[in-house]
Design a protein that fits this description.
Blueprint: E1 2-5, E2 8-11, H1 18-24, E3 30-33, E4 41-45, E5 52-56, H2 64-75, H3 79-90, H4 99-102, E6 113-122, E7 127-133, E8 146-150, E9 158-161, H5 166-172, E10 174-180, H6 185-192, E11 199-205, E12 220-226, H7 230-250, E13 259-265, H8 274-283, E14 288-294, E15 309-311, H9 316-320, E16 327-332, H10 335-347, E17 355-358
Parallel strand pairs: 12-13, 12-16, 13-14, 14-15, 16-17
Antiparallel strand pairs: 1-2, 1-5, 3-4, 4-5, 6-7, 6-11, 7-10, 8-9, 8-11
Helix pairs in contact: 1-2, 2-3
Length: 361
Amino acid sequence: MSILVYGKTLHVPTSVYPEVLNKIMCQPAHYTPNDSESHGFLNYICPGSTMALAILTPGWLRSSVEAICTQAVSWRLTTSTLRHLMLTSIMRSQKKSDHLERTASVLRREVVAAAKVCGTTDESPSVKSLHLLVADTNFSFKAGQWVDFFIPGVSVVGGFSICSSPRLLEQERMIELAVKYTNHPPAVWIHNKCALNSEVAVRVGGEFFFDPQPTDAPRNLVLIAGGVGINPLLSILRHSADLHRERAERGNGYEIGTITLFYSAKNTSELLFKRNILDLVNEFPEKIACRLYVTKQTTQISAELKPYIMEGRMTEKEIRDHISTETLFYICGPPPMTDFFSKQLEKNHVPKEHICFEKWW
């Protein structure tokens, strides 16, 4: 059904009943059936306000709003928070650069889960990582996917790749995001207003992921990252390490091949998670390798990083040397970089199904 609120046309599933709307839209709401109800037309009026909802109800519409509404009672968030989360998730943005607009055709999970901020870290001068507790056991993701990020009081929905592994969520109900500062409202909130125990909500989406099954054939991975494009690739790298640990401990499970990370940033201070990456390289020297590139380095490179650092841009030849029939390529970075390497791989006869890339961010 469609709802007209302050001139905005929203979409809500027919199955949303008055008592649910009472909890989300206003408290209390007055339900006024009219002669058109048999044709799917209902009125909702919030006493003490000028907000009236005119609701048209074609039965074909089913959207993620239903998931929000049916879970509203169990979220234990404030009414204003729930109202905001519902409205921002169902209003179609008029800005082409908006996350919801860019990813409108991308598959999403139905679960919208409440999350609580339990820690933040400055990963670089411009990037802050966010640690979120997601208690809902129905919430899950595949390594490489992103979340719709709903913030109370912020009318824009964010979209951020998860950089932690699925194992961390399974064991500790935690996910990690890393967000670069921009003037985009969700990024501004994360950098300037986010505090411990802040409440948000998240929903998983995305078709860029690595999720091998135990009986799948071993694959080598080449991960090509630029800037904050490291986020989904770090999730894949961490997941690959977890799979290798699991096989070593149990003697079964998916057998991962080799993983090579090519990662470029402006300078070493903007190479995110470099210590985590090197820890994995040192833990699995026969499985994981990395080459880190800096394009505008002006300070001396530390002794710890120097063996892994290349000054200048990564080249097509370096990537081409890793082509094989057993290798999958995952690329995430600035769109020009992503376009260049994906096209070069195709020119070198890598099957399209072996080239995965994410560039909406």
